[in-house]
Amino acid sequence: MNIFRLPDLGEGLQEAELVQWHVAPGQEVAADQPLVSVETAKAVVEIPSPQAGRIEKLFAEAGEIVRIGGPLIGFVGARDESADKGTVVGAMETSGRVLQEGAAGVDHGVAGVRATPAVRALARRLEVDLGIVTPSGPDGVITASDVQRVARILSETEPAEPLRGFRRAMAQNMALAQAEVAAATVVDDADIEDWAQGTDTTLRLIRALVCGCRAEPALNAWFESHALARRVLKRVDLGIAVDSGEGGLFVPVLRNVAERDPADLRDGLNRMRADIESRAIPPEELRGATITLSNFGMIAGRYAAPVVLPPTVAILGAGRVRRAAVPDGERIVARRLLPLSLTFDHRVVTGGEAARFLRAVIDDLALAA
């Protein structure tokens, strides 16, 4: 049997969820014919057949997680001796199935957990993950009562649901950012009282962000942490954080924003939104951002500490516009203010660089047009 394995689908992706098969065992297929749809990093991708031939076996079912390099399809043909062994990931063998669903095992030395062997045994019996138990014993020791309390709470809730698709990708990306980035955040307000009625806030933010990148190019960069090397990038490829409701958070990339006119940028944003709503956004449009913008104030919130995703080094967040009293000479006047939050990776961006970037953004936003 000739085994076709899940190919590398993009930068840093390690797995994908199988959404739908388009073929069945015994079927003859042509080269480049769609075989299966998989979901990864907020996009549904069709994988084409690498060859013509007859399908002998499907190695996974819809809803299962398949690791990159894991077997997908067996074609009739020369035998692949590795087919019976699955894909070896570290010391763990898998043939594309989710190895565990629900709470993780509790007797595996959870970091920071202090409990006696008897309490650990009780937790295993009650299927309680010690990692989610708040200790009440002396010196942070988890007691039997703590475990029983959590067991009662869990018995009244729905079973744990494994994260799938975009939420799984989000969890992995946030864990990476938390583990790697030395994040620092600076906040300030932009006075937008002079904006004309009907001004497109997102387009103005994009323009101002480009001004920030021109003033301090160090924030439009990638940091290669393994080599302690920085790449300052000339082109601004802007990641736009987009909330899709139940669909979750997407960060598609609007390319070369510094060289595009407002009408072209608005068309690009509209197409981006339509692709997200139809879950048809190409995977390549979710990769390669050089800096990120989050206009979370369209929903709620004044200031925030947005998360920087490696290898980028900065993200600008815009909060909810408010009217506030500000001094104007000897008078106090009401002005419209746009709160801004700039998070940067302090491993590679200095506080001065971040402040100068934000100053340039504020100065541009203060202009009437």
Automatic annotation (TrEMBL):
Enzyme type, top EC level: transferase
Origin: domain of life: Bacteria
Residue ranges of every copy of the Peripheral subunit-binding (PSBD) domain listed in the record: 114-151
Family (UniProt): Belongs to the 2-oxoacid dehydrogenase family.
Gene Ontology CC terms, in alphabetical order: cytoplasm
Enzyme Commission numbers on file: 2.3.1.-
Entry keywords, A to Z: Acyltransferase, Lipoyl, Transferase
Stored PROSITE patterns: BIOTINYL_LIPOYL, LIPOYL, PSBD
This protein's name: Dihydrolipoamide acetyltransferase component of pyruvate dehydrogenase complex
Domain Lipoyl-binding: 1-76
GO molecular function: acetyltransferase activity; lipoic acid binding
